[in-house]
Hints:
Strand order of the largest sheet: 1-2
Number of domains: 2
Strand content: under 5%
Distance between the termini: 92 Å
Number of strands: 2
Bound molecules: zinc ion
Amino acid sequence: MAMVFCRNCGKEIKKTANICTYCKTSWFSKKHENPAIPDGIKGWSWGAFTFNGIWAIGNRTWVGLLSFIPIVGIIMCVILGIKGREWAWRNKEWESIEHFNRVQKKWSFWGGVLIITVISLDIASAFLAVPAYQDYVQQTKNNMNLNQNYK
Ligand SMILES: [Zn+2]
């Protein structure tokens, strides 16, 4: 039997139940529009922060598509990092908190991989760029010396 979390009280109920056995809230009640978030959902999301728009599609959190807009997108990335997990919890159907966290962990893992890759490439290019620049300066000096010697 598939279980879902009551969007009002957060307790586990049968997916087919129209009324929560704990708080007696109808599954179709207005309360579901502003549901409580169970423990273990809130928190910073590296996945949402890093992948923003892609994460938003994967987690059915359409407000995250705002991150594709320039400038607004930068702010949206941070908002997604903070609120993303809560939104994803509400917007998509999850088997359990455990399932939710398993999926979000994957997003965060690849987010981490992406961040580390980008930072490593930046450092690597700095290490390549500095000697290249020094070579260029040295060559320019040499050329100038050569030109002076010809005079
Ligand atoms: Zn309930």
